[in-house]
Amino acid sequence: MFMAGTTVCLAPVSWVVRAAARRASGGGGSRVATRRLFDGRHRSWRPESPAARGPMQIHGARKATQQLAQRGSPARSTAMAASSEVKDIHTKESTKTLLKNEALYEYMLNTMVYPRENEHLRELRLITEQHDYGFMLSPPDEEQLLSLLLKVMGARNTIEVGVFTGGSVLATALAIPDDGKIVAIDVSREYFDIGRPVIEKAGVAHKVDFREGPALNILDDLLADEGNEGKYDFAFVDADKGNYGNYHEQLLRLVRVGGVLAYDNTLWGGSVALPDDTPLTEGDREIRAAFRAFNAKIAADARVEPVQLPVADGITLCRRVV
Questions:
Q1: Residue 121 has pLDDT above 60, yes or no
Q2: What gap in Å lies between CA 114 and CA 166, rounded to an integer?
Q3: pTM (2 decimals)?
Q4: Which Pfam families match (predicted)?
Q5: H helices within the chain, ranges in order?
Q6: What is the DSSP letter of 2?
Q7: How far from 91 is each of 88, 132, 134, 135, CA to CA, in Å?
Q8: Where residue 102 falls among pLDDT bands split at 50, 70, 90?
Q9: What SS3 state is found at 138?
Q10: Residues 256, 254: Cα–Cα separation, whole Å
Q11: How far, in Å, CA of 22 to CA of 319, rounded?
Q12: Predicted confidence band at 159 (pLDDT cuts at 50, 70, 90)?
């Protein structure tokens, strides 16, 4: 969670094969690799040994320097991956941005994002970045975008599918009114409990209705109550990618006409635009295929007015019109 991030152009192949050093999962040569597995209902992240996971995936190089924790700004350098090496698209050592210019991304973070970042969001971000799966957190530029959108909309009731440590939940809770509510859904409470103390410290825990379990089932439970249809102003999805299309059908009934549905990671490190013969791990190839199908579905869906932004890992916003 993930995710979410402001971009000018998509990464060409030369950038996608580059490694950048900032976020994601496990550090150093002995780190445990991760891979997203689908069970048809919800996501689960399971550690695998390097030997078991097969080839490495697309982004990700060694960290050249440590993050400057006080400023929140990562100091990093990039390196070209060996031509025979296939890197993870998302790891603890990859930068979750589609900008091809690292210096520009740093400029944006240091000029417009970090100086305005809420102290509690910053605290939770720094805590999460130390976690092996820290790359799942929505980056601060994406949280800033969603926070502004929620305020412009006057959103009060929201749904979040995929919570992780609660970074985007906290950003939402800080943006909606005091009597607003977030139905926050995740298959496991374990990671949310990492961020829960920060959410409580921020004084917004009363806005969060955390529900543990497979999201499809929980959304069905919400739909069983007719009073929930069209009740919600906004929904954010950062969960198992293979089910995005199913979540879309459920959320279209829960979010009101004029409301917004937001889907994270829809450009998946730029891989959706790469040639079919690009070397990818099995996991990334599966996710890329899922996103290509989902993006085509949204592009053809007359029930929504969509826009796809190259922010962070790609975020698709859909305004419900029917």
A1: yes
A2: 18
A3: 0.75
A4: Methyltransf_3
A5: 13-16, 50-53, 102-108, 119-129, 140-153, 167-175, 192-201, 215-223, 244-254, 282-299
A6: -
A7: 6, 9, 9, 6
A8: confident
A9: coil
A10: 6
A11: 32
A12: very high
